[in-house]
């Protein structure tokens, strides 16, 4: 592999001609491939089809405490559902609310409530303040940033490092600025970098001094059981760390079964201190008489316990690991050694984050589109869609078949090479 950055202009021009010829041939194939969103593939969804047969007209439809799951009630979830998710998230049953079908929905509503009523009794509604700001470790999850935009919350970019967000930057900012009220975190197998926060990062989050008394960490633990290897990453329990540091109301933990069972047909959960949970329940009671308990019972009877959940997640891994390997092998064989891109091999989650040479991401995405491959928009992983170095592209390998993915990666790698050579020739 030759390092493109040391080639002479003449050599680069030759490489450019060869790549362009290949690119034009690819365009003639009229491909239509999609690597844009982190969706489970149909065969992953099939793994949970058994859940559809769990309840029928003949099944007893009472929960453990006698609740008829067909009727109203159970605002914060069935006891067995709370116990199941408490085990997954390592919190107590009093520290959890079982929501509807989506954790993003819970995050949106939590921000909305903070805007309208404040984060707890006696706290000022954020919407009454002249300015509300959130810290946004980037690259991050675009839909978190969209929630901020919707509520006119100013976003401040924070760098991602190898073991989590840059805590020096964060500690300084939250200590100085009272209008910083929150931060978005995907602490395990982060979207898109695939990294897990270190114990030190978790402890610093729990104990840092914040100028805003009502500062909240939005801890989106979406990929907590989504391992790709037999040696899963371990994430330190932030609620326990916050309690130990005397800041137990600081963290709001979100998760869901969207990528465990059915995406959009799963269960979202919110975990936090008992104090926060009581406050949310009071407001939630005005919003709904209770969530879908039929879906809760389906999930609980399907999994029965956390051990079965682990076995189920291994089946997911056996479907998607070969896809991650395919992407990583292609990157290594086509881009490795050329000094035109970098990426991290994740131990779990749904994405591979790729960094081009500065200033090339937009070009790569539009070239790939021209050749029939849809990628997540360049910049989407940054607040306001603005990647200051125009270099990050989120690769989502799970949805396409292995054959489609291989083709899509051929196109992707070619586009990265072409865009890089064009940049180096400028
Ligand atoms: N959080 C993260 C980090 C995600 O990547 C996703 C989906 O891609 C979600 C939340 C959405 O979760 P849900 O389907 O529970 O709303």
Spatial ordering of strands, largest sheet: 2-9-8-7-6-3-4-5
Number of strands: 13
Strand residue content: 5-15%
| String of helices and strands | HEHHEHEHEEHEHEHEEHHHEEHEEH
Structural class: alpha/beta
CATH fold-level label of the largest domain: Aspartate Aminotransferase, domain 2
How many helical elements?
13
**N/C terminus separation:** 22 Å
Low confidence ranges: none
**Which compounds are bound in this model?**
pyridoxal-5'-phosphate
CA radius of gyration = 23 Å
- How would the global form be characterised? globular
- Mean pLDDT, nearest integer? 97
The major pleated sheet works out as: 8 strands, mixed
Word description of this protein:
With 426 residues, the chain is of the alpha/beta class. The chain folds into two domains: 4-44 and 310-425, Aspartate Aminotransferase, domain 1, CATH 3.90.1150; 71-304, Type I PLP-dependent aspartate aminotransferase-like (Major domain) (Aspartate Aminotransferase, domain 2, 3-Layer(aba) Sandwich), CATH 3.40.640.10. 41% of the residues lie in helices and 14% in strands. It has an eight-stranded mixed sheet with strand order 2-9-8-7-6-3-4-5, sandwiched between helices. α7 (199-207) crosses α8, α11 packs across α13 (402-425) and α12 (361-370) packs across α13 (402-425). The structure holds pyridoxal-5'-phosphate. Pyridoxal-5'-phosphate binds at residues 38, 102-104, 141, 186, 191, 220, 222, 256, 258, 263, 268.
